[in-house]
């Protein structure tokens, strides 16, 4: 009897649960209609499994990409499904939707006039959305993050942006927005990316308080009183304009995903609960024990490698403690990369007064890598004496990492000292700096500026290079005081830089990316041989002080043209970005134009965008050649050169060739140039080939000492000034 009674009650409970779940699963009719309208306007894609234009229940039937809570649709994720069409006109009916992600599709048209009114996270990036954005954001008071990047939006920002009072993350990069950004000045933003648009006017002072700010590639005013006067007491997390954030980490992706579709649960008795609790406790205990063993083993190995035993005491300076996690150095067989720290509030800097501390730090680097530090250790006193206390008269220039000074030592040596103005570093970040020094000091290539020494004491971080009489390539190409470089010399420069990059990518172990290749970082010596500088230093930029970041931000506006489309995305091989930047450099050599020039008409400002469509059109290709070298080489050579450029600047990184293949292509091209010179092939004769050196009757040169006709004094150092 008891069994029959229990069976009957079980049946009743199960039946009641099913009925209740079906009642809860019935989706709000207006929300069903909204999804049906969206499905129709997206051209009924097969990727949206379960969707219909009539009938159906998104929550009960688990439509693809739809998450529900009871009878409400709260999450819509249609990311990367190759969807086409447009967004329809009924999204505002999704009254309970919290998150919407339709990124990485081919959706076109404008943003609908009405959006989900209670959305907190919205990602529309990487589509073909276009047109001016109207006042569509009015009433979206709950919106916290929004990503509209990588679309074709035009026109000014609407005033409704000012109503987004809870917006902390906004990504508008890579569109065609124009006008002012003042509507964004009152928002509580923590992340703002407006890079690669056509914004103009004054940058609001409020932007100085935004921790993560990217805005390169615009037309902002930079007059006598530019809006870059950020308060020095404000330490942004990373104000690096040249490194936009990826949408992979923005908007929807950083928000916890709700996986609740329908509530269909059976009641569980005490025995089941006890089983789950007990089993969970057992599993957790096993995990804790296992992790403890692994941690102890790891610590033991660390102690053995460092030459310490368990009886050795080793204390860290308490001043090295700070709020955020320290930087980490990651090594892999493919690439040496550094994870940038979150630069939060700093405490007093640790002061290293004794040579013992510096020596032990050097030894730690030696032990870690198994090879001695090749860079010489300088004291701050020696450098102060050699630079006349870093006086203005010794200042050579300011670059994206800090100031560069000329240093004259008592023994007659002349060096260039790069003073990297950093924030207060933790002990681990100090070790990271030394790791960079160790890596860079081992670079030995005729086309790479060698690192001679370093200094890291009293909170100062300096790098010492050989001082050479040189001129940056960007000045040689774009400054009116210099005569045009011949075609032969431009090929010589191209092959030299290519070989340097190939050395970094293929010979150095682990491979190293430059990550900041540009004509300003290529120095031409008195023999006009190229030398690539700042190799391996880009990863130090997040550690620089606020004042340096502001200067770097101004410099980065002009460097926008070198930035690869995938730049900033996690997990990307930076060597591919180097190859893209090298392709831009080849375009710069061919055309004589700057990679990004806001003095030109809008459609001609970005060199890659302007030149890409012209590389495979004979007439346009000839017209884009720098007038200073036009008709000095055959069209056959020009066409081959254009092929190399086209491969390097492919928007899809997988299609770009490795630098080793680029080097071989340029070598073959130089051989063809020399053959044409010797045989008198058809077409205009090329200029002097990239052999041992330029001929004296070239219009680019005056003598073997100065080379440049209009610049008798070359005073630039072996490190960049911008």
UniProtKB/TrEMBL annotation:
Q: Which keywords has UniProt assigned to this entry?
A: Glycoprotein, Leucine-rich repeat, Membrane, Receptor, Repeat, Signal, Transmembrane, Transmembrane helix
Signal peptide stretch = 1-25
PROSITE patterns given for it?
PROTEIN_KINASE_DOM
Q: Which Gene3D superfamilies does this entry report, sorted A to Z? A: Phosphorylase Kinase, domain 1 (3.30.200.20), Ribonuclease Inhibitor (3.80.10.10), Transferase(Phosphotransferase) domain 1 (1.10.510.10)
Q: Where is this region: Disordered?
A: 347-366, 675-702
Report the superkingdom from the record.
Eukaryota
Keyword Metal-binding listed: no
Instruction: Give its localization.
Output: Membrane
What PANTHER family does this protein map onto?
Answer: LEUCINE-RICH REPEAT RECEPTOR-LIKE PROTEIN KINASE PXC1, LOW QUALITY PROTEIN: PROTEIN STRUBBELIG-RECEPTOR FAMILY 2
Keyword Transmembrane present in the record's keywords: the answer is: yes
Topology term for the membrane: Single-pass membrane protein
Please give the start and end residues of each transmembrane region. Answer: 272-293
Species, as recorded = Cannabis sativa
Q: Which GO terms describe its cellular component?
A: membrane
Coarse class of the primary localization is membrane
Protein name from the UniProt record: Protein kinase domain-containing protein
Q: Which residues form the Protein kinase domain?
A: 390-669
Q: Which InterPro entries match?
A: Kinase-like_dom_sf (IPR011009), Leu-rich_rpt (IPR001611), LRR_dom_sf (IPR032675), LRR_N_plant-typ (IPR013210), PRK1-6/SRF4-like (IPR046959), Prot_kinase_dom (IPR000719)
GO molecular function: any one?
ATP binding
């Amino acid at each position: 009897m008891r069994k029959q009674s229990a069976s009957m009650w079980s049946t009743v409970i199960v039946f009641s649960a099913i009925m209740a779940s079906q009642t809860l699963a019935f989706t709000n009719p207006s929300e069903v209609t909204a999804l049906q309208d969206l499905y129709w306007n997206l051209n009924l894609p097969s990727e949206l499994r379960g969707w219909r234009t009539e009938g159906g229940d998104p929550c009960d039937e688990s439509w693809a990409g739809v998450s529900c809570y009871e009878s409400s649709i709260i999450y819509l994720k249609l990311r990367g499904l190759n969807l086409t069409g447009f967004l329809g006109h009924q999204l505002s009916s999704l009254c309970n939707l919290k998150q919407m992600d339709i990124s990485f599709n081919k959706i076109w048209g404008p943003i609908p006039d009405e959006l989900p009114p209670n959305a907190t996270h919205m990602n529309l990036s990487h589509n073909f959305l276009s047109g001016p954005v109207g006042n569509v954001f009015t009433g979206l008071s709950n919106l916290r993050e929004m990503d509209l990047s990588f679309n074709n939006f035009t026109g000014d920002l609407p005033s409704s942006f000012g109503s987004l009072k809870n917006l902390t993350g906004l990504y508008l990069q890579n569109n065609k927005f124009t006008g002012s950004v003042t509507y964004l000045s009152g928002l509580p933003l923590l992340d703002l990316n407006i890079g690669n648009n056509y914004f103009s006017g004054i940058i609001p002072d409020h932007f100085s308080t935004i921790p993560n700010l990217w805005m390169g590639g615009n037309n902002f005013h930079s007059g006598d009183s530019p809006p870059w006067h950020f308060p020095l007491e404000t330490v942004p997390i990373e104000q690096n304009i040249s490194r936009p954030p990826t949408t992979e980490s923005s908007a929807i992706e950083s928000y916890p995903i709700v996986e609740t579709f329908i509530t269909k649960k059976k009641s569980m008795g005490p025995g089941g609960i006890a089983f789950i609790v007990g089993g969970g406790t057992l599993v957790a205990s096993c995990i804790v024990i296992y992790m403890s063993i692994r941690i102890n083993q790891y610590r033991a190995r660390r102690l053995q490698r460092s030459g310490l035993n368990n009886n050795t005491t080793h204390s860290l300076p308490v001043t090295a403690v700070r709020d955020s996690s320290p930087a980490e150095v990651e090594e892999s067989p493919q690439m040496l990369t550094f994870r940038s720290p979150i630069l939060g509030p700093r405490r007093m800097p640790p002061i290293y007064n004794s040579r013992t501390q510096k020596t032990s730090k050097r030894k730690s680097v030696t032990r870690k890598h198994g090879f001695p530090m090749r860079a010489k250790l300088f004291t701050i006193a020696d450098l102060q004496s050699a630079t006349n206390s870093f006086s203005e008269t010794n200042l050579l220039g300011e670059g994206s990492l800090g100031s560069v000074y000329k240093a004259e030592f008592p023994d007659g040596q002349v060096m260039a000292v790069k003073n990297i103005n950093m924030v207060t570093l933790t002990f681990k970040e100090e070790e990271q700096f030394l790791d960079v020094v160790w890596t860079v000091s081992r670079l030995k290539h005729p086309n790479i500026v060698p690192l001679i020494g370093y200094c890291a004491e009293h909170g100062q971080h300096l790098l010492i290079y050989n001082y050479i009489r040189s001129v940056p390539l960007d000045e040689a190409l774009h400054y009116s005081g210099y005569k045009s470089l011949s075609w032969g010399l431009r090929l010589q420069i191209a092959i030299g830089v290519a070989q340097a990059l190939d050395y970094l990518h293929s010979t150095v172990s682990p491979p190293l990316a430059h990550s900041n290749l540009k004509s300003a970082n290529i120095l031409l010596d008195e023999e006009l041989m190229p030398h690539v500088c700042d190799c391996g230093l880009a990863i130090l930029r997040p550690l620089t002080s606020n004042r340096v970041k502001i200067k770097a931000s101004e410099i980065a506006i002009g460097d926008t043209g070198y930035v690869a489309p995938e730049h900033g995305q996690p997990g990307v091989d930076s060597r591919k970005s180097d190859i893209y930047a090298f392709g831009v450099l080849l375009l710069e050599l061919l055309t004589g134009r700057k990679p990004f020039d806001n003095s030109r008409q809008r459609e001609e400002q970005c060199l890659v965008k302007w030149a890409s469509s012209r590389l495979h059109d004979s007439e346009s290709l000839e017209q884009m050649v720098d007038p200073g070298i036009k008709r000095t080489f055959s069209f056959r050579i020009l066409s081959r050169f254009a092929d190399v450029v086209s491969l390097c600047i492919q928007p899809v990184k997988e299609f770009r060739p490795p630098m080793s293949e680029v080097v071989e292509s340029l070598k073959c091209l130089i051989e063809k140039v020399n053959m044409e010179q010797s045989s008198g092939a058809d077409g205009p004769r090329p200029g002097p080939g990239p052999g041992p050196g330029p001929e004296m009757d070239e219009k680019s040169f005056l003598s073997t000492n100065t080379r440049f006709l209009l610049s008798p004094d070359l005073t630039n150092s072996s490190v960049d000034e911008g």
